[in-house]
Amino acid sequence: MAAAGLTAAATLLAVFLPLLAAGLAALAGADSFTAFGLGGCAALVLALWFSTWAQAAVLRACLFEESVVEVLSRSWDMTAGFAWALTLFLVAAGGGFFLLLLPGLFLSVLLFFGPVYQMSGEAEGVRAMELSWARVRPRFAAVGLRLFVGLSVTWLPGAIPYVGWILAPFWAPFGIVATARLARDLREASPDAAPARLAPLFAVLGLVFTLGAALSGRSALRAYAAGREAILSGRLNAEGLDEETGQAMIAVLSGRASEAQRRQALAFALSKSRQTFQAPLSSSTLSAPGP
């Protein structure tokens, strides 16, 4: 908890300082767009680095009996390697999810402990992923069940209405402790497991992930263009919104909707979606100025 709290505070401070500097620069007469653009980019880079360090620190605190100072110092030195292991896991699992749901789930379980073995110092990068695969594969069902139960139990307190957001930060470390314990049990069950050779698989999954992300981005841009055209042309609100549908939409947004109101709001949203995305895009609208 100490490692999580200190690294979270450091992350917030690292994000805040560039934005504060940008605000001061704008007040001093600098171009606001340039100042906040540079400040936002710096804040994003620092947020990624410090949040990765925070994850590494909490995981190391679960793996070793070290003081908080030792945990923070050693995890800082290992942040780059941990970031690489996380990237490999996310790209491989993401490539599996782009193929189909089941490959993504299977890969998530098989490679889940790669970042843990990276932080334990037992293996690095692709080798850590291969070690996770070799140890999980013989007992896939048992490990998958434990991960599902552990992650579900960790998530449930955060879903409690009104107080979940308070409980979640205090409860989340228990899930990381359980993950570290399960990784240790796997190591003790297969201490001499020979890492699988997964470099070709990672290359293929990386290509699938890149293509999937590119196609998803293209689809998102087309959806934005279609929505923008519908708004600028007035086609989105051409038929107006009757009072009953409006009340149903408000009830859904406030969480007080009946089943009939939810169906009515969904039908309205689907009809507007069809009107927006089935109509062809006009070049004049796409090139029109505006937000």
- Fraction of residues in helices? over 70%
Distance between the termini: 44 Å
Uncertain runs are: 281-291
Shape: globular
- Most strands sheet: none
What is the rounded Rg? 24 Å
Number of strands: 0
What proportion strand? under 5%
* Annotation field: number of helices: 13
Structural class: mainly alpha
Q: How many individual domains?
A: 3
Average pLDDT value? 85
N-to-C series of helices and strands:
HHHHHHHHHHHHH
Protein described:
22% of the residues are buried. The protein contains 13 helices and no strands. Helix 4 (79-99) runs antiparallel to helix 5, helix 6 packs across helix 7 (125-136) and helix 11 crosses helix 12. It is an all-alpha fold. It has helices spanning 2-27, 32-63, 68-77, 79-99, 101-111, 114-120, 125-136, 140-155, 164-189, 199-233, 243-254, 259-278, 283-286. It folds into three domains: 2-77, no CATH class; 80-204, no CATH class; 242-277, no CATH class. The protein is globular, with a radius of gyration of 24 Å.
Key words describing this protein structure:
291 residues, mainly alpha, 3 domains, 13 helices, 0% strand, globular, disordered C terminus
